[in-house]
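debug: dumping io for the single-chain case to check the tokenizer round-trip. Nothing else runs in this session.
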Amino acid sequence: MATYDDPRILRAVAHPTRNRILSELSAAGSLRAADIARLLDVPANQASFHLRQLAKYGLVEEAPDEARDRRDRVWRLADEEGISFRTRDMLDRPGGRAAYAVFQRSAVAWGHHLVDRALAPGGERSKSVSEHAVRLTAEESHELMLEINAVVEDWRRRTRGADDDGRTTYSVYQLIQPMPETDEGADEEGEA
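debug: decoded output
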């Protein structure tokens, strides 16, 4: 997995369309700009622009071996295992705190969107919402995270590059953290 501490790269990833492109490429393995445009319901030139921006930072690259001809541009993640950030190192760099604030706002908005969609009644596709409370040491929580990530990565490997056959990209959203404190000023109804 590629690890970065450059605030400019974090800002590039914070853009919702670019983040979604990275997710689609992670799930599919490789896609054309036209495929991405269709999946994200954006114009093809917009998908191409965002792909070029991600390529500028080394996050995606062309996959010429998968192209039909020299004019056909197929894209893939530069590192198929994905990307991560060394947040502590990045925060100390010029522009690091501002870039992190932009990323955090984007991540919070996306998290709210996912939870709202998951809890909405009905729905066109299967979905699952779970919350589990588990008593762990810090080391055990890290081990649990690694085990869950391994299961998800196994599924990604099995389905990456497979025929569509009714497949769509699913989001697997995971939080592993100590139970947050409750707002002591609110009663059970959520009123102060």
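debug: round-trip ok. DSSP finds seven helices and five strands in the chain.
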